[in-house]
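We modelled the chain as a single entity of 132 amino acids. Its sequence is:
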Amino acid sequence: MIIRRAATLSLLALAVLGCASSRPLPRTEFEDIPLPKGLTYQPELSTVIESPTVKAVRLVYRGRLEPESLAEAMRSTLEANGWRHVSSTKSGKKGAIQVYEKPGTATQVHVYERWWYTYVEVDTTRMTSTSQ
């Protein structure tokens, strides 16, 4: 009986922890950075830094997509959303790095492959309105 209760509580704790860790980051300020379907947000690898005048994020996603086509899709969708392409770099194991800008905002997209997954890191810095 005690073993059954312990097992039930352990399974319940795992379920609760699993739900808490898969909670997506609200992306309302960064909806102009579209992501292809098939990518899953990685909260443990992502970072958000806020100050009164700047918001900087590093959003990490992963999926089982082909890196070259994913990099091309990112460029196409960003340019379609008004981002100006500044530069691109490709390097075998390091993947592709793309830099974009909009007024008051800069974004770097890094697409690379590790083990079973392809990763996309979106590093964005955005000026926010100052509150006075």
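As a brief sanity check on the tokenised model: Residues 3-26 have pLDDT under 50 and may be disordered. The CA atoms of residues 10 and 94 lie 40 Å apart.
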